[in-house]
Design brief:
This protein has 295 residues and is mainly alpha-helical. It has one domain (16-287): ABC transporter involved in vitamin B12 uptake, BtuC (Orthogonal Bundle), CATH 1.10.3470. It has 13 helices and two strands. The chain has helices spanning 2-7, 9-14, 16-44, 51-69, 73-96, 104-126, 150-172, 174-184, 186-191, 196-222, 229-243, 248-268, 273-287, and strands at residues 140-143, 146-149. It has a two-stranded antiparallel ribbon with strand order 1-2. Helix 3 packs antiparallel against helix 12 and helix 7 (150-172) runs antiparallel to helix 10 (196-222). It starts with a helix and ends in an 8-residue tail after the last helix.
């Protein structure tokens, strides 16, 4: 590690701006996925390990719809996000709701099963190949000794807009306020006439829609295939654990930090970037289980 840093000291300084911006781009996607974990966990108390497959559904449906049905890209994107939201809603209605009052471990097993089913269905429907969509914008910006695509940089404001919309949803809509009430106290929400089942269903649909947006942003940069969501979901979960699963702010902070840490790891040893996600989960659960931002 030290040898690498000394050998590439000049290069690291020259390309540090590129690595930093790439970290922000990837971190913004992780933050969206982490917020999806937060939305479901805050409302239902369930950790949804199918979140990565919602990312895959949004990205691959958008790309397949655009390439096969030859629809305009904006319409294909809308269909992809809505499909992800519908899959999230059905996952709750078919998989979670029937297991009423189950233990947390049972819910975890159910979400893992949902993940496997979605991945298997996608492999059958879309086959083993990668789908992509055109870049929203062309060109690149020179940063230090390297360049960053405008397409990549566009991810940051899109993610920020989604986060602001999510904030507005919880603050100004009835459904959002009902979900917040369930997050505070399910019994209290029931006493106020709020349907916990409806709020829980909304949380799965909303979380899946956020994941779908993440999938749409990933597709033009890296492409998407049937097994492309698993590792992305794990990294989003790592971001949520790092920042704080119960804190929306913590999820955003955790996502950005996760992206920057991953880019830093690429400087040292690119082959270990995926292991970093598991290491972050283990270390945070051991040292600070509530995350960096506990509330």
């Amino acid at each position: 590690m030290l040898y690498f840093a000394q050998k590439h000291k000049g290069d690291m300084g020259q390309y540090s701006g590129v690595f930093f911006l790439n970290g922000l781009v990837i971190g913004s996607i992780y933050a969206l996925i982490a917020l999806g974990f937060n939305v479901i966990y805050s409302t239902t108390g369930i950790i949804n390990f199918a979140q990565g497959e919602f990312v895959m559904v949004g990205g691959i449906t958008t790309a397949w719809t655009y390439a096969t049905l030859h629809l305009p890209l904006p319409l294909a994107i809308l269909i992809g996000i809505l499909t992800a939201a519908l899959v999230g809603l059905l996952s709750y209605l078919i998989g979670i709701r029937p297991a009423k009052n189950a233990s947390p471990v049972t819910y975890i097993i159910i979400t893992i099963a949902i993940s496997i089913v979605l991945k298997s269905a996608a492999s059958f429907a879309f086959e083993v190949k990668s789908y992509t969509i055109p870049k929203f914008v062309e060109g690149s910006m020179r940063v230090g000794g390297g360049t960053v695509d405008w397409q990549s940089l566009l991810v940051i404001p899109i993610a920020a807009i989604c986060m602001l919309c999510l904030l507005g949803f919880f603050r100004y809509t009835r459904a959002g306020r009902n979900m917040r009430a369930c997050a505070e106290s399910k019994e209290g929400a029931r006493l106020c006439g709020i349907s916990v089942n409806t709020a829980s269903a909304c949380s799965f649909a909303l979380s899946a829609a956020l994941a779908g947006v993440g999938g749409v942003m990933i597709a033009p940069m890296f492409g998407m295939q049937f097994d492309g969501g698993t590792m992305i979901g794990l990294k989003g979960f790592s971001a949520a654990i790092l920042g704080g699963l119960i804190s929306p702010t913590g999820c955003v902070v955790g996502g950005i930090l996760m992206g920057l840490l991953e880019q830093g790891m690429r400087l040292i040893s690119p082959g270990y970037t995926d292991i970093l996600a598991l290491a972050v989960v283990v270390l945070m659960l051991l040292l600070r289980p509530r995350g960096l931002v506990s509330k």
